[in-house]
Amino acid sequence: MPTLRLILGDQLNQNHSWFSKPDKDVTYCLFETWSETNYTRHHLQKITGFFLAMRHFAKHLKEQGHRVIYRDLDATRDLQLESITDNVLHAAKEIKAETVDAIESAESAILRARKLARKRAQMEGLLPSKKRKPRR
User: Fold this and answer.
1) DSSP structure class, residue 9
2) Which residues have a Cβ under 8 Å from the Cβ of 12 and sit 6 or more positions away?
3) How many domains does the chain fold into?
């Protein structure tokens, strides 16, 4: 069953369980897109550093025997794929993927942990159970 696995620029961990051994049914994908650089201000060196790290990681995965789709900015622009979502859908069709997986982003994990911590603090009486209205 063909599987596509998305890897974002802040998820380049070669020790993740996904990469323990190559699987002919799994294809990893990494994409350089302008949409990921424009959602907030980033220094050009930071963007360049992320893209360079992604390229090296994709090369490393290929050297380990994994199947990889890597699209640089020119490729995503040539295919008119503006976002990560556009690229994932295109790649999924390309390999006829039956499933698409992704590592949970650090941002969503932090938000979930923050919400859980707030709820637990409320249950333990450390925080009020309802948000207070700001004083005027």
Assistant:
1) T
2) 53, 54, 57
3) 2
Domain that holds residue 124: 106-136
Contacts (Cβ under 8 Å, ≥6 apart) of 62: 68
- What would the pLDDT profile of 77-110 be if each residue is shown by its tens digit? 899 998 889 999 999 999 999 999 988 776 666 6
pLDDT digits (tens, 9 = 90+) for 110-122: 667 777 777 777 7
Q: CA nearest 61: which of 32, 30, 95?
A: 30
Q: How many residues does the chain have?
A: 136
The CATH number of whichever domain residue 28 belongs to comes to 3.40.50.620
Looking at the fold, whether 126 and 61 belong to one and the same domain comes out as no
Give the tens place of pLDDT for each residue, 44-67: 788 888 899 999 999 999 999 999
**Shared domain check, 77 and 15:** yes
Same domain flag for 22 and 74: yes
